[in-house]
Amino acid sequence: MSVKSQMLEIGKEYFEPNEEQDTQKIIDIVIKRLNRDFPPGKTLRQFHAKMHGCVKATFTVLPDLPKNYQYGFLVPGKSYDAWIRISNGSVTVVDDKKPDLRGMAIKLLDVPGEMLVQDHWFPQSQDFLMVSYPILMSPNVKDVVRNVRAVCNGTMGLVLFALNPINWMTLYRTLQSQKKTRNMFSLKYYSVSPFRLGKPDQAVKYGAFPATENLEPATDLKDKNFLRNRMKQDLSAGSVYYDFKIQLQEDPVKMPMEDVCVEWKSPWHKVATIEILKQEFDTPEVNTLGENLTYSPWHCHKENQPLGGINRARKAAYEAIGKFRVERNTK
């Protein structure tokens, strides 16, 4: 074990040099690409461009929650209304049969207490951004700059990125994360990055795990939107449930705070139940809402502060890019 590793502490952040400058590079690259590729009024997200559905849900915290978990939104027995956006991870709208990283973004409404950053539309909301793979492709903000530049520069950018051996592990992780699915409600979703849980020495990751059995897979794979149609069929029949869980950092070396390419291996503990309600969600009004919602891990209670370099970069990047997109679409 290195001296540096011996000095690591549970729950503590370790800032990298030039994080602010690298974050601004990401913002500039993405906004340039959105300006170039989308007309005003139809500007999609940089990632997770294809929304399968924006659905109503309830999020209910367990009544017998252990005392050391009771921070921020985790109030025993508390129930929140929520909007959940289900999506493909790609930067473009593609056929659902293609392998992809998938996403679940949860927005809890009317969370009491002081928020670190308030959502413009829902000031007391708390967001959880999760994907269908337990790690990200790049460990730190500096590497994310290279990846975003490659994606935003189209085919040639991706070719040049792939030819550089320094990027090969990123490409490997990307390929590993891209899977086919025939039902979005059958997937596990992970926050990937860590968060404070009340105390300075307590950090967690979040996860949402399917709790509804015997969901049917989509069968009409010729339809490019079969995942949306499968969601419509499931939610016309009844509610769909998820277990919302937390995973505590137990070792600052084996479960690093600053490297989101390392999967934590500590046990998962259920803290809440998500019920995605029986509903008809595929309407012009709800679809417009889903496209205009802005999600950020920093829309959260002060006791649930996002941690690590990737989350620190998200604070400025999500705010700037989300504001640009919404203003461009609502003028």
Automatic annotation (TrEMBL):
One of its GO terms (molecular function) is heme binding. Gene3D superfamilies: Catalase core domain. It comes from the Bacteria. InterPro entries: Catalase_sf. CDD domains: y4iL_like. PANTHER family: DOMAIN PROTEIN, PUTATIVE (AFU_ORTHOLOGUE AFUA_5G01990)-RELATED, DOMAIN PROTEIN, PUTATIVE (AFU_ORTHOLOGUE AFUA_5G01990)-RELATED-RELATED. This is Catalase.
